[in-house]
Amino acid sequence: MHESNTLATTKQAAQRAVDAMTQPEGMTRVTWASVHLVLEVIAQSYPKAYPSQARISERTGIPIRSVQRYIAAAVAADLLVVEADAGAKVSRRSPSKTNRYYVKLAPVSAANLARDKSHYSYGVVPVTPSPETSSLVPPSCSASGLAAPPPTKPQGSTVVSMREYEDERSRDVGPPAAPPLRSKRRVRPAASDIVSDIDSQRRKRKRPPAQPPQARRLAEYFAVIWEQMQLTTGMHKHTRGLESIGQAQTYINAHFKNRTELEVRQMMNEFVMAVSQGHITLKAKQSGWMCFTGAWGRDRHIDTGDIYAVYEEK
Amino acid sequence: MDDDLNYKGVSMTKLPESLKEPLLQWRENVLTGDGKQGLWVFGKRTAGTTYASQVIYKRMAFQEDRWDPPMTLTDAKRVMAIDLVELVRASWQAAASIRQYGDDFAVFTEAQSVQDRLFHLFYDLRLLWIDDLHHETIDWSIYRKNIQPYVERRVKMKMPTIVSTSLPPVHDFLPGKVIGTHFITVYVKTDGAG
Fold this sequence. Notes:
The structure holds 2 protein chains of 2 kinds. By secondary structure, chain A is mainly α.
């Protein structure tokens, strides 16, 4: 019971516990820095806190031998509990090489709180319910089966003001508080409710607007003339004309909005003609449509007509 | 106006009058620092755009004392457009290498040098000549997105820039107003030499 109370059961709680730890007496500052680092790594691996020494070494940058030394120091300072032989056994006789670590809550310093053995400040601790406390906070109110700390001032702490007491309470690092008891019983929804809910969502979902038919006609036209070019010239036998009709259709809708169907057809004809005559080179793994739209860049640009004609006249 | 029209092996006397006038006008603009600082020399591929550009480039680059402050030869440079495109590609490659090998100092240095060269071209040089910008041979999409904006910025910052190209100033490849506003356009009809 005592052990389970002093151990942090969740990662967050463990990390908070490590954060709250202070340098134990008799340990140098340098050692404490390394020990704290090791403890942080152990806390990070909660709730499955069995990191190998190699892993701790890797995370902290401390050599394995020193990791062992710092773990021993932490155990000696009563900050860590090591459960040896915690993993699966390879054989019956040889023990497993896995250690499981439990971060222990730091004991309250006697000098700070002017008392020796009261555990009220760190987490939930076993309390023998006195008549007055048991009437106020029954130990059974906690879902985890743990007793809550006594709400009254503990004995022997006459020096401690109420404020200090509250401060200490705020540093509690036990298991998270139990959720409040549900006042109402949750009713599981019936299958019919779920179905009707899905149907209502389905009705709200908008359908994409229907695309104009000429885009599909144009996409199919491109596919046809590309295939014809492949058959007649024997070029680009293994090159795809289109990725998909739908993709080409979308592109046509987006980019050839202001052009007539005839114009686009002429452009397609011109392009396929230029490909068949070798004026346009397709790049590796490029489909005809990609080359037509210039998605991967084109090797050559076709200027339709003389671009210098205007300047020649001048 | 300089009467010596034959300079450093290239002669302006061979150029037709229709070319001389805008070229000398641009030279005046550069020396006074007013007016359009860009020169857009365009024509067909073998029309002699390079020759026409060279005439005015050499005249400007070697007359160091005419500049204020006087120019050194390293302040003027002729670069081929294809090299510029390759340089931009190299900068992308260097950026990719940095992403992959972030700790490698050699990779970092290489990337930095590529960036420095680009910066030098677009911001340091007092006179830049981009030659052989043939829109049919170079990857125009790269040029338009990654080089043309810097060229335009140069001329807007009153830094003299010559572009010898096959592209007329009004073309689908180019933004409409910038060339007309910031460049003096010169059309080379026939061989520049004759």
